[in-house]
Amino acid sequence: MDLHPCTLETLYKMPHRTTIFLRLNRKNMAKYSPSFTITTTLLPVFVVVSLLLLVVVPKAHGARAFFVFGDSLVDNGNNNYLLTSARADSPPYGIDFPTHRPTGRFSNGLNIPDLISQQLGAEPTLPYLSPELNGNKLLVGANFASAGIGILNDTGIQFASIIRISQQLQNFQTYQARVSALIGPDQTQRLVNQALVLITLGGNDYVNNYFLTPITVRRLQYTIPQFTKFILAEYRKILMQLFDMGARRILVTGSGPLGCVPSQLAARGANGQCASEPQQAAALFNPQLVQMIQGLNQDLGSDYFVAVNAMNMQNDFISNPRAFGFITSKVACCGQGPFNGVGICTPASNLCSNRDIYVFWDPFHPTERANKIIVQTIYTGSDKYMYPMNLSTIMQLDSMT
């Protein structure tokens, strides 16, 4: 495709009312769109730009790397390689995965990172601990997440060997050294700067720390509002470490509606109502996370961080599941006890026959279909869910640079 007499970069610098000549070569254009038949025309710049985005941008989406940090909501198999009880490597996990086998994902099928990779036009990232993560596979990115971890190092101690966030960041440093040996330091820096990053932390700090037992060390130290401020201050430090390591497009998720998951309905809820204290915690954590992201971006002078308000996203289909095609948002598909919310999902658990009509797969984690709704909202959602922009806007903006 030939632009004459200016480049695409020049186009974006021109006023929108400017009119230019665009010379399109029919043979070259066919590579991008066989049905594209314009040969010579006179168009306003905003039309030209829109035209070019439609035919050129999708090819670029798959080129960017994708890095994932966090807990079981985004772990795609790292804990398979650890001596820990926080594992999803036995049936019926993975029952709806393409292989119909457990992979270490805490899902009946695909999880949130898998679905974001699809939006990027890329193959799923491999777990950092996978022996298959080498050579050109490194250039796709890596998933560093580990089920059970939180913002705080004392979160998830009951799970023994898990990859805490400090170690995940160290693994990211080692990853960059491995990639640098493959493509050189300059190209590695460019790959990391242009990558999309997803980090999911916070829920375990409440459920598997503060609220783990009726009396915990953190409960004795802090009220719920105080604890929320404490972990958000620690989260900010983690995000700055990611930034210092080269990350520039970082999706930062809040917690879901913690009191409404089947495990909390079974343990703390009254008559099927969401548990009040975990709900209070989530209601404090999510808006304050958005405020923290806003402050970080102001301090750094650009929108490097994007807050994903997971509570608002999930509240929609928890409060009105039938509007989204679910029959229940209270009972897990796989589990036992009240609401199938006791213990973990095992081969001996109750198992629903149709996972698509359940919001929750197990006592803690959404089904693949619920994950698809979440990721679609990440991609196209308003600022009620995505602040200051959604993923489609990020991809469009980045395609212009």
From TrEMBL:
Q: GO MF annotations for this entry? A: hydrolase activity, acting on ester bonds
SUPFAM superfamilies for this protein:
SGNH hydrolase (SSF52266)
What does the record list as GO biological process? lipid catabolic process
Q: Which Pfam families is this protein grouped with?
A: Lipase_GDSL
Key word Transmembrane present:
yes
- InterPro entries, per this entry? GDSL, GDSL_Est/Lipase, SGNH_hydro_sf, SGNH_plant_lipase-like
List where the protein spans the membrane: 36-57
Keywords associated with the record: Hydrolase, Lipid degradation, Lipid metabolism, Membrane, Transmembrane, Transmembrane helix
Keyword Lipid metabolism present in the record's keywords: the answer is yes
**Origin: domain of life:** Eukaryota
Which PANTHER family does the record cross-reference, listed alphabetically?
GDSL ESTERASE_LIPASE LTL1-LIKE (PTHR45648:SF58), GDSL LIPASE/ACYLHYDROLASE FAMILY PROTEIN (AFU_ORTHOLOGUE AFUA_4G14700) (PTHR45648)
- What this protein is called in its record is SGNH hydrolase-type esterase domain-containing protein
What is the source species?
Artemisia annua
